[in-house]
Amino acid sequence: MTSLLPTEDETMLDDMARGFLSEAAPVTHLRAMRDAGKTFDPDLWAQMVEMGWAGVLIPEAAGGSGMGHAAAGILARAMGRTLASSPFIPTAVIAPVIFQAAHDPRHEETLRGIAEGKHVFALAVDEGPKHDPENTKLVATRAGNAFRLSGLKTFVRNGNAADRFLVLAKVDDQLTLFDVPSDREGIQRTEMALVDSQDTARVQFLDVELRDEDIVGEIGGAMAILRPALAAGQAALAAEMAGLASGIFDLTLGYLKERKQFGKVIGSFQALQHRAAKLWCEMEVTESAVIHAGRMLDESPEDATLAVSLASARAIRTAALAVQEGVQLHGGIGMTDEYDAGFYMKRAQVGAEWLGDYGFHAARVAALRGF
Q1: Tens of pLDDT along 276-297?
Q2: pLDDT tens, residue by residue, 319-367
Q3: d(CA 151, CA 127)
Q4: Together in a domain, 212 and 324
Q5: What's the 3-state SS for 189-243?
Q6: pTM of structure
Q7: Cβ atoms 160, 199 nearer than 8 A
Q8: Would 133 be classed as within a structural domain?
Q9: Residue 68: CATH number of its domain
Q10: Are 91 and 126 members of one domain?
């Protein structure tokens, strides 16, 4: 039975992450970035790298800490609490799993570069409104000893700041993954102005030349290395969403203890207490599912699919409930930009779509349970 209790190291990591982010990246930091028209803070990411967060899934031999997926979830959860915006999931979670799953010695330099903060990666797999990598249409056509790539990828998280793209395309009708420098001729990026004020792009590939050395793994072998990486990213995103729910819950609880109506703090009203208690219960169950997913990825990754999708589905629903209750329990001011509740709602809305929405994960859970 997988233990859901944190280890001493995990408790210390959680305390450190929360303390750092509460000072360096509170919600006011996101507000200031939005007001300045910025979606990426390189200084904040540099601080995270300095603390070793970029190497959380990278082995010590390649310059990382190798702490594992449960630790990555702790960091993601802490970021969700304060809505810290960073390339953590694409760069520190998804990319390292991809390069390690490829089992190619030449990727050790890339892993070391990630741990040292030399690279920011973006995952370019989606082409439509829903996450559906296995139905990728983008084609890399053979051109002598090279390939030519033309087409569009959308919803590319951290696509404007990235210096490397992990691009999923078809070669001879076989799904193949490429590692492409973002300054390669023919790549055009357009910022997607999403409500959560995070770095997201559409990436257009206009007859981009790809070489054999750009292939990660082998032709036709994309999903074998991409599936575990997507699972890792989904688990980290679920942790971030759980942290988001916790953050808006604490914000709302503080408001209930301060706001007075009819001469009493509104938190003393039984109806509001019931709503807060119900949300807390949902958060606790989701938290357990998220921790279990991280443990499964560390201990038995080949069996982790069900745990990851269960955690993802629960985290999406719980975050939605938390932000709805948070805005409503703040009353009319909850809908105003003056209060931070709206920032949590916007992040929850976008997070619910990236790397698979509720329907995607619920369908996978149902299939794995034989329905």
Answers
A1: 999 999 999 999 999 999 999 9
A2: 999 999 998 888 877 778 888 999 999 999 999 999 999 999 999 999 9
A3: 9
A4: no
A5: EEECCCCCCCCEEEEEEEEEEECHHHEECCCCCHHHHHHHHHHHHHHHHHHHHHH
A6: 0.95
A7: yes
A8: yes
A9: 1.10.540.10
A10: no
